[in-house]
Amino acid sequence: MRVWSAVAETVSRHGRCALVTVASVRGSAPREAGARMVVGPDGGFRGTIGGGELEWRALGAAREALARNMPAATVSRFALGPDLGQCCGGSVRVINEVIGRDRLGATRALAAREAAGPFGTRGRIGQRSIERTIDDDLPPEGPAVEIEGDRVVERFRDLRHPVWLFGAGHVGRALMLALAPLPFDVTWIDERDGAFPAAVPANVHPIRSADAAAEVARAPSDAGIVVMTHHHPLDLAIVHAALAAERFDYVGLIGSASKRARFARLLRDAGVPASRIEGLVCPVGMPSIRSKHPAAIATGIAAQLLERTGP
């Protein structure tokens, strides 16, 4: 979740919101430091700090603070076992910050910076707000949140792994939807007019291309490549380009064992090294899922991508 985009949107629409942040964790906890929720005055929220009693208490505190309609910033500590009856056994500190319309300009500036890439801030927790200053010298690597007394260092980074999905048929559409809430950035390629739906999730970027195989050269080296076009020769051309590039750790192809065997022979004849062909994931997805329903196939592929390539 892009935190400041969600904050700016909620404040613009409702006049205020609460930003709930896991500031520190000791021992076992449902989420890591830096997990956040953006809570609106209507009770709706985006993001999660792990569910369970901790999240329920944090939501209650956020809604209560919003009902007072006053800027506020508080830090609370929860021992998950003794205080909340959760089995995790650790403890967490949670910052609950109410952000009003008077800070909309600053919030939009942070949202713009977040959209440009990872960045960091330094701030001081006051009774009414956290005053943040962008620190361009703060390296993006490091803890998402560091808190000491009333001082807080935060790193904002929307970590998403690139997936290049070739094919906008039934399974391609189902996979696009399956990947929408997950930490992936999807480039979706098809050559046909009208292949893409009118609306797609924010993390999906459709490209109509007359030469899908040539698009492989534009994919970053850490991308997962998933191939499921409407045409087997096109599948072969894309897989050939991806394997011959020798820079992608995951190349997945929809199809049967017989399709794999046929493609393997053709790829060998084309000079693709045997080691690269052996790495081709085909059939793609989790073999334990036997259903051929598009949504079920997509679920298996999404799970495999999380297992093999996810952040």
Describe the protein:
The protein is an alpha/beta fold. The chain contains ten helices and 14 strands. It has helices spanning 3-14, 52-67, 80-84, 104-116, 170-179, 212-215, 232-245, 257-269, 274-278, 294-308, and strands spanning 16-26, 36-39, 45-47, 72-79, 91-100, 119-125, 130-134, 145-148, 151-156, 161-166, 184-190, 204-208, 224-227, 250-253. It has a five-stranded antiparallel β-sheet with strand order 3-2-1-5-4. A five-stranded parallel β-sheet has the order 12-11-10-13-14, sandwiched between helices. It has a four-stranded antiparallel β-sheet with strand order 7-6-9-8, with helices on one face. Helix 1 runs antiparallel to helix 4 (104-116) and helix 5 (170-179) crosses helix 10 (294-308). The model has no long low-confidence stretch (mean pLDDT 92).
Number of strands: 14
Instruction: Name the average pLDDT.
Output: 92
Order of helices and strands: HEEEHEHEHEEEEEHEEHEHEHHH
> What's the tally of helices?
10
- The proportion of residues forming helix, as a percent range, comes to 25-40%
Largest pleated sheet:
5 strands, antiparallel
Task: State the strand order across the main sheet.
Answer: 3-2-1-5-4
- Fraction in beta strands: 25-35%
Q: What is the subunit organization of this protein?
A: single chain
Q: What gyration radius follows from the Cα positions, in whole Å?
A: 23 Å
First-residue to last-residue Cα separation: 14 Å
Structural class: alpha/beta
Principal-axis shape: elongated
Q: List low-confidence stretches.
A: none
